[in-house]
From TrEMBL:
Family statement: Belongs to the UTP11 family.
Keyword vocabulary terms for this entry: Nucleus, rRNA processing
Record-linked InterPro entries: SSU_processome_Utp11
Compositionally biased tracts (Polar residues): 18-29
Protein name, UniProt field: F-box domain-containing protein
Spans traversing the lipid bilayer: none
Main location (coarse class): nucleus
Localization per Swiss-Prot or TrEMBL: Nucleus, Nucleolus
Domain of life of the native organism: Eukaryota
């Protein structure tokens, strides 16, 4: 003695999206171009509680890796700059030593006049007479 209306109730329900919208009181902050909704604290807390923990920990690990990479990059640039400055200093020392070696050789040396200097320095610059090739 079942009626036709009862037969419809025994079928599994069809899945559909709820048409009712949640009733949250929210306000919005209006900028010149954007409208940003300001959500209530209860909704924000609910959203944060539903977030899985794994992506947040991965984000933290990625942030730490990025920090370490930036630190290593800055350190390597500092080391590179220190090496370059040492090379410049060694080149100056080498040039001074080469000049002293040339000055110790026998032969007549004459100083350049001030107008012949391209880059005047505190140390005198010497020129040698060209020797004839044999």
């Amino acid at each position: 003695m079942e009626s036709e209306g009862d037969e419809d109730t025994h079928q599994p329900p069809k899945w559909s999206r709820p048409t009712k919208q949640a009733q949250f009181s929210s306000t919005s902050v209006k900028d010149s171009f954007l409208t940003i909704p300001v959500l209530p604290e209860e909704l924000i807390t609910e959203i944060l509680l539903r977030l899985p923990v794994e992506p947040l920990s991965k984000f933290r690990q990625d942030f730490q890796r990025t920090f370490v990479l930036r630190h290593k990059t800055a350190t390597s640039y500092r080391e590179l700059e220190a090496r370059k400055s040492r090379v410049r200093d060694l080149e100056k020392v080498y040039m001074d030593m080469a000049m002293q070696k040339e000055l110790q050789k026998s032969g007549r040396k004459c100083k350049l006049r001030e107008e012949e200097l391209v880059n005047p320095t505190t140390k005198p610059v010497y020129k040698w007479r060209q020797e004839r090739k044999r």
